[in-house]
Structures are given as C-alpha cells and as structure tokens.
Amino acid sequence: MYVAVKGGEAAIANAHALLADRRRGDRSVPALRLDQIVEQLALGVDRVMSEGSLYDRELAALAIVQARGDMIEAIFLVRAYRTTLPRFGYTKAIDTGAMLVERRVSATYKDLPGGQLLGPTFDYTHRLLDPELAAGGDVAEPLQRASEAEAMPRVSAILAREGLIEPDGDMPQDHIPGDITREPLEFPMARDIRLQALSRGDEGFLLALGYSTQRGYARNHPFVGEVRIGEVELELDVPELPFAVPLGSVRVTECQMVNQFKGSAKAPQFTRGYGLVFGQSERKAMAMALCDRALRATEFGEDVVAAAQDEEFVISHSDNVQATGFVEHLKLPHYVDFQAELDLVRRMRAEHDARENAGRAEEKREAAE
Amino acid sequence: MTAQPTDIATYNFAYLDEQTKRMIRRAILKGIAIPGYQVPFASREMPMPYGWGTGGVQVTASIIGPDDVLKVIDQGADDTTNAVSIRAFFKKVANVAVTTETAKATIIQTRHRIPEHPLTAGQVLVYQVPIPEPLRFLEPRETETRKMHALEEYGLMHVKLYEDIARHGRIATTYAYPVKVEGRYVMDPSPTPKFDNPKMHRSPALQLFGAGREKRIYALPPFTDVVSLDFEDHPFEVQTFDQPCALCAAENVYLDEVILDDHGGYMFVCSDTDHCEKRREQGHRGHLAPESPLEKTEPAQ
Amino acid sequence: MDIATQAIEGGFADPVFDAQTVFRAVMDAMARPGTLQPLPVFARPPAPLSATAGAIALALCDNDTPLWLDLVLQPPAAIKSWLGFHTGAPLANTPADAHFALIATPAEMMALDGFSQGTQDYPDRSTTLILQVSDLVSGAPLLLEGPGIETTATIAPAQMPRHFVEQWKQNNQRFPRGVDIILATPEGVACLPRTTRIKTMEA
Q1: What was the ipTM of the complex prediction?
Q2: pTM
Q3: Catalytic annotation on B276?
Q4: Active site residue B183
Q5: B31 a catalytic residue
Q6: For chain B, what percent of residues have pLDDT higher than 90?
Q7: Number of folded domains in chain A?
Q8: Could A9 and B8 be called an inter-chain contact, meaning their C-beta atoms sit closer than 8 Å?
Q9: In this complex, do B33 and C23 lie within 8 Å of one another by their Cβ atoms?
Q10: Fewer CB atoms inside 10 A, N or C side of chain C?
C-alpha cells in the first residue's frame, strides 16, 4: 500500500518558523538593530542599495538582517519591494562635478586641482585582524578641518579641455534616457541602458569580467582617471514650477576610466569607461568602468573577441537576482520531465542491450562455424 | 517584549501596481493576437525568485478578478510545495477562491503539466515558462533568434531534430517539445512532457505563457492549431506507459515513477493528483491502492 | 459643466476592479473573435467618446501608450483633458506612432495601413484600434474564421470602415504584422485580431 506525500502547506509553515528561529539565533544575544547595521555594516548596506536599485539605508539594513546576511537574498528583497513603488518622476541627471567629495584619487596625475583625498579607504590598511575591535574598544574621533571649498573638476574634464579624450557620450540632445526597470531589454542596446544594467549588475560578475580584460581578454589599457566618492544633490523638474526642486542628496561612487584608443580615422584621443554606483564601492565602480569600455568595442570598430565585450552575454547574465533564481530553481521538482527522460533512456538502453546481445550471439555463431 | 511591525515597508493590493498590470495586460492582448509570438514585456521582480514561476504569477496577477477560482499545479500536483506556495500567495494578496478541482477552476496556473481533465471554454491555463525561446539551445543570441522568427527560418530546429534521429534513431526530445502554431511561429510549450502536446491543439481554453526572467509573454487562443514538429518517416508520438496508475488504474494518462524501496521496487501513479483522487472517489482502484478511500485534500481556506 | 470638472469626473469608480473587469472582457473578446463580451457602464467620458471606448482606454492606456484620436474626437478639448487626466496617455503625433487609436466614426476613418503595423521582428509594436460602433447586428454580416473560433462566427458591426473586407484581407496578408481591432458597442466589446479571416461577405 502506498500513500502519497501530502501536507506541503504545513511543511512550508514549519520551514518558515525554523528559518525565523535560525535567523534570530541565540536569544541571549541581543537582536541586531537596523541602525547598527546602517552604521557599522555600511558597505554591505551600500551594495544592497546599489544592486537593489533602491536608495534607502534602513530598508537595505532590514533586508540584510532578514536575509541573514546573504547579500543576494537581501538585494532580491529590496528589488521585490522597489518594483511595487509608484513612479513619481525622474530626477535631473546628477552632477558629480559638484559632488561634496569625501574621497577622490587619480592615478593619472600626481597632483591636480582639488588634490588627492584618501578618505575612508582600506587601501593602506595592513590586513591584520584587530583584537581591539573584537573587544568593542572606543574609536577616536577623526581629525577634521574646515573645507577649503576648492573646486574639484573631474579629471575627464581636464583632459577634455585639450581634446585628448573623447567627448562625454554622444546621445542626441532630445534623447530620453531609458529605464530598464520599465522596459524590456532589447539587443543591441544604447549605452545609457547598458550602464543602468551594469550599475545594478552583480559585483562579483563584473569584477571577474573586468579582471579578464586586464589579463588580455579584450585588453583596453585602463588608467583610473579618477575615482570619487561623496554626496550629490538630487533635483526634480516639476512642470508647474519654474525651478528644479531639491530632493536631498545621495552618496555615490564614480569611476572615470581613461583608456587607449585603437584604430579609426578620428584624431587620436583617449576613450572612456564609466562606472557609477550608489554608496561607497570602488571595486564595483571600477569593474563597471572596465566592462563599459569593453562593451563599447563595436562603437570603436574593435573586434569582439572576449566575453567582456559581448553585450548579450554580459548584460543577460549580470543580474544576480535573475541568475540565482534560475540556478537555484533546479532544486524545484522536475520529476515529470525527468520521468520523460528516464523513459527514453530506458528504451534506448534496452535497444542498445538487444543490439549487443544480438552481436555477441552472432560472434558466437561465427566462432562456432 | 514583542516587537511591533513598523510601517517601514508596505505593499500594494494584489502585489502588482496598476501600471504594471496594464503593461502586462497589453502584452497579453498582443500575444493572443499573434499566437505563438513571444511578446517582450517589462517583467518585474516578484516576491518569489526567478525560476519559481514569476512569469506565470505576473500573468495570473494581471488577469485575476474577485470572481475567479484559482487552481495551481506543479508537476501535475496541487500539493507540491511551490504550488502550495503560489496558491497561498494569491489567497493572501488577492483573497481569491482556490480549488484543486480542474473542472471548477477558472484560472489554472501550471508548471510542467496540462491537467488530464479536458479544459473547457472560459478556462485560462497559465504556464510558467523558464526558457521561452524554442531556438535558444541551438542559438544563444536573442538578436539571431529574433531574426529567425521574423524570417520564419526554422531550418536549424529541423536539423537538430534530424541529428537526433541520426544519432539515437529517434527524436530525443521528451519534454519542451517544440510546436508550430497556426503554421507560422515555432513555440516552446514550456517543459511539459511531450505527452501533453496534443492537449494544446485546438483546446477550448485560452492558454497564456509567462516567462518572468526572460521577460516574454505568449499565448494560444482557443481552437488554435498547435502541431508538434516531426518528419514523415519519424512522426511525432507521445509517451506510453506499460501499466496503469497503481492507485486509480487510469490508463492513457501521464504517470510518475515512485521509488518504493532500495531494492529496485517502484510503481507508477498519476502525475495529475486531482484526476487520480477523482477517479478513486468514483471507485476506481489500482493494484496498490489503500483499502479505505483516501482523505480528500483541499487547500486550507 | 466646465472642462476641468468634465476632465476629472466620469472615471472608474473602483479603478482596480473596474480595470480588471474591462480588461477581462477585452481579453476574452480577443481570444474569441466575433463574440460579444458584455460590459456594464464603468466610465462616463465626454461625448462623443462612448462609455465603452472610454472604459477600454482607462483600462489599457497610460503614459507609456501614445494615443491617436480620430477627426471627431480630436477637436473637443474635454476629451483630451479627460483622457489626459485619467490615463496620462500622451497624444500620438501621427497615427503610425500610436499604440492605441480611438475611432468614434469608423466609417470615416483613414485606411488601416496608415497605423503602425509593427515590424517583422516586433509585430507587437502595432496600433490597436478601438472602434466605436452602435451594434454588431445591423451592418454587413462578416463570416469569421481563425484562431479563437471553433468553426465560424458571424457579426455584422454597424458603421464599419469603407472597403473593410478588402482592407482586412490586406491586414491578414501582412501577418505577423498588422493591426488589431476592438469594437466598442454600448453593450460590450468584440474583437478582430489580425489572425481573424473574413471568409465571405454576404450582400
């Protein structure tokens, strides 16, 4: 006698209860507060905001704790919430030239107007685990000085004055930027669409692709013209008002990569790769800039020879929410399809065995003769 | 102390906002007007992962109304975990009536099966589709496959099927078996076993296909010609089973193989759980059926 | 009533469920060409835009769908502001840019091929025509066949475009490109998707 398995609903409810228990862990340990995550795991929060495409630290922190620290799961939570929000409008393009800069480094010039600002970087920390941090020791206030209010022009603008770098994009004046969250992707895509996809793309995927360009798979001779991190103002044009309405500010990381220009009859000049992400993430912004430049291969008449240059390949696989869903869905039941394959393999196996047996019988007969 | 939920995050009624529903509804209308053509749509992130039926869920969420009765199956069964989960989602966000009975449902969302009970006019079958492009495994590039559909250039598919025959002596595709719709578009029927392909042909029900991750919607209006691709000397044929369902003795239905022990014992039972239960209620008994009538499974209301 | 009031009033009383009901009627009509899917009055647009055509526009149009108005619907400012207020749909510069076209007097309308037909790659990028007709019985009978129709279906919509049968045959020949038609009557909706063939037309 056989009774089929039932009770999926109860099993799911119990699994959720167990998940909640494991998420909370030892009850004698204080529960994390969202402000602790926002303040002390800020770069994790930034990644969730960036790849979740929603600038809200508190929600990102909630997502991180709800996801038990699984970043892709947290990004997914934020995306699924974001998609339900009504769209009021589109802000004006942010002006990163007017950024309130906390960090700014250029690899192409020793010094430049506005100077090099190291800011809060891991770059020169010695990666020694810090027992004092484990003990929760006090942290001294950083040194502060009044800002000198010196303008900090973008390196690309400095190069552009001499005509040594290509102009910053060549979208027509009346071009309305696309919105990958509102329109289905279409290949080949315009650069604005591609940059949006890269900006929410998986950090690890873009990092690996960017790295591959450095190792010769579509090498594009990059120099970090500049990486800058800081706050930029958001403004919204409202038709009824004669001025743009300030909405507040967001923290972004921008990378302007300066790359060699190959071929073409145009005057020799550098080309650009661009990266921009929410929050503080140089790794992501730089990897994005490398990928952006690689993906412009066709635009510059370069041969598409490597994965990083292949727009359909890169953009179709850069979204980690999509990728994790489709990879992980393999654990869902597929037994109907498997049954179909099982049936086929059994039949083919039976035919194969019959042929073998017939062959052996033939050999025997021939040997006997 | 009990933590109170805060108003930090709230969701819209029926999950999808009205603008999204309109966008999906427009895509559905185009899909119906161009049977078998994959309409691109701006698929949204859903609260379940891509691969769990986000396309089907978006289609269902866009068509469902308060008078609908929803059935959700996965692998033919109403009680597989993901079917349970999707059904619970719609109960929660749309407060809609649910059923396991094929005949009572107005909307049936499915993954990998078409119910055994014949569908009727007025019913809508919503398929969850992972890879909507039937040519995708032959040509990975969307730019290329779109051209092939535009030019009705399906030679590649026939070459693939023919290579199967050369190598295996038969067409080795057992599920997601490609079909041609109204003599024009080659279409992926979603990973249903080819056993179900004939049910698509001239079905009185409306069939809608949603692929969330791949952002495509397509459709088969009722009474639409759906022909499985084949060759004259290798005609399309469906799977047959050597034995009837061990529980309800049904023949000519799709069966799941259930492993009974680790000594090679197995049996075959209906993949369509509703069909199997209905038959047992009617007194049909397979050779491994329990003596007492099975408890009926209804999803909790 | 001034235009501002007219613009604001007459929308869906229950936007979520009214839109769903209207859409389902249109979906069923598109899936079963030639059948009348009844609809109650959900919208009260300014004349001469009909209640049914207005409700379909509210259910399907928004700022992503440029809208074309025929010569009768274009002049009244009240219609533009009503559609603008309730749907946010921009007006299309040309019929070929329109995702939807509202046609109050089909008998006077421009040729079907003047609207967007979609492309061979993207045949879905075509105009859906919403034609206001008074009924489906008093015009020339059309015998229909094609997907969605078990054998044949017959409708006789009033006030259809000139040379409609010939124009529709050409529309069929453009498949997969072509326009789709939603017929809006006071009782409900019927559809002619591009796959529907008009078999013969009796005199």
Answers
A1: 0.97
A2: 0.92
A3: yes
A4: no
A5: no
A6: 78
A7: 2
A8: no
A9: no
A10: C
